[in-house]
Amino acid sequence: MTGTADTTGTTDSANRSYRTASITLRAASDLLEAAREAGVALGFEPATAIVDPGGNLVAFERGDRTPFLAGPIAIDKAWTAVSYQVSSSYWNGYVQDPSVSPLQNLPRVMPVGGGYAIREGNLVIAAIGISGGTLEQDERAALAAIEKLGLTPTDTTASTKDR
Questions:
Q1: Alpha helix stretches (DSSP H) within 3-134
Q2: Are 44 and 67 in contact (CB under 8 A)?
Q3: 127: which DSSP letter?
Q4: Are 131 and 70 a contacting pair, CB within 8 Å?
Q5: CA distances to 45, 47, 119, 160 from 35, in Å
Q6: Can you tell me the distance from the alpha carbon of 146 to that of 144, in angstroms, rounded to the nearest whole number?
Q7: What are the φ/ψ torsions at residue 74 (nearest 5 degrees)?
Q8: Burial 57-87 (b: 16+ CB within 10 A, else e)
């Protein structure tokens, strides 16, 4: 019996690997542009990071008047979101549990809203992290950029969801 992987990233027992997908540089650039437009419409210049499913930086942009600290925060928000395929805001509540709270001490974990893993169909292809505005601005800009490209966040757990 020969094993084959399907496009959902699943595999049968005969395979030793599986197919996955990753965002293209063009799509990452389009996300940067959409995030910039959304941020400006919301009243701020974002720092925006796009990472692949392995957390590797694919594209990055920081506005001229964006605080320099927003850059590494955006990168770490994206990394945090893709690490478990949930929003970075989800992590904020998750690390409140004493049994997992030490996770917040990991160098790259950024349990602050503004980071979302991104799906195309059934596969996580990337994550976006935005920083430089208020929590609400960061989250709204990230979701607007994802929506503009016709992609889907892995979850919409966000502090703005209940407002």
A1: 25-42, 70-84, 88-94
A2: no
A3: E
A4: yes
A5: 9, 9, 17, 17
A6: 5
A7: -60, -45
A8: ebbbbbbeebeeebbbbbbbbbbbbbbebbb
Q: Give the tens place of pLDDT for each residue, 62-83.
A: 999 999 999 999 999 999 999 9
Which H/E stretch holds residue 138?
Answer: helix 135-148
- The per-residue pLDDT for range 36-71, each reduced to its tens digit, is 999 999 999 999 999 999 999 999 999 999 999 999
Q: State both tokens at 142.
A: 């990230």
How buried is residue 116: exposed, middle or buried, by Cβ count under 10 Å (0-12/13-18/19+)?
Answer: buried
Contact 47, 59 (CB under 8 A): no
> What digits encode the pLDDT tens for the residues 84-142?
999 999 988 888 899 989 988 888 999 999 999 999 998 999 999 999 999 999 999 99
User: 47-51 and 152-153: which strand pairing?
Assistant: unpaired
C-alpha 57/C-alpha 112 separation (Å) is 19
This prediction's pTM: 0.86
Residue with tokens 């701020």: 44
Half-sphere exposure (CA, 13 Å, Cβ side) for 32? Answer: 20
